[in-house]
Task: inverse folding
């Protein structure tokens, strides 16, 4: 196993990365740098301390497993963990090897899931819906038919409604017109919303379509 002096440049760079990551994801994520060359006092630095550990504490089971076997996976991501007080944690552990293929350091991220689970529960409750004694519609009649037809047209082109190019949007309006969907109340507004463009753009597409149709008729 390399000496501390051999691995210190790596550990110094790793500590800078840990600081940046912890500041980006504060206050939810604890980031720990382990010196695996000193397993009894492996914690070299701990940023945004959520676990209550301190610099100089020993390596965890994950660190000891890496020290014991160079074949241990470099990255173990998003595994369930918990702090000493029982708070649920999502952890990721990244091991770094030296030139000989032995693990010399590890970067560990521990995300406190307490707040996120509370938010998840609140959102689930907020978005929960019940039944109504009557079926109520608050959108223009037939708008869903227009959206479904736009979706199917885009899917046929292996695209999405908002990714359609101008010639494809003009052809889409031609399809909607032939199928009578543009006769539905507020159809142009529905088309604009689903394509993610302004109503003025849709009316321009319609004008270009009409001009193309008139030109085609003039040539017959």
Result:
């Amino acid at each position: 196993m390399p000496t501390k002096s051999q691995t210190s440049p790596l550990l110094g760079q790793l500590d800078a990365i840990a600081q940046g990551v912890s500041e980006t994801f504060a206050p939810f994520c604890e980031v720990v740098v382990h010196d695996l060359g000193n397993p009894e006092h492996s914690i070299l630095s701990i940023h945004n301390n959520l676990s209550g550990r301190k610099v100089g504490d020993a390596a965890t089971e994950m660190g000891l497993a890496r020290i014991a076997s160079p074949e241990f996976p470099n990255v173990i991501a998003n595994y369930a963990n918990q702090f000493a007080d029982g708070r649920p944690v999502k952890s990721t552990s990244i091991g770094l090897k030296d030139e000989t293929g032995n693990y010399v350091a590890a970067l560990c991220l521990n995300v406190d899931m307490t707040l996120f689970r509370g938010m998840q529960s609140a959102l689930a409750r907020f978005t929960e819906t019940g039944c109504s004694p009557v079926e109520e519609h608050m959108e223009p009649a037939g708008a869903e038919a227009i959206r479904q037809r736009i979706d199917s047209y885009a899917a046929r082109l292996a695209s999405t409604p908002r990714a359609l190019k101008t010639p494809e949007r003009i052809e889409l309006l031609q399809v909607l017109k032939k199928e009578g969907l543009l006769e539905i109340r507020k159809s142009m507004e529905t088309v604009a919303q689903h394509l993610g463009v302004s109503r003025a753009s849709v009316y321009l597409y319609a004008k270009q379509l009409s001009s193309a149709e008139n030109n085609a008729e003039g040539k017959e």
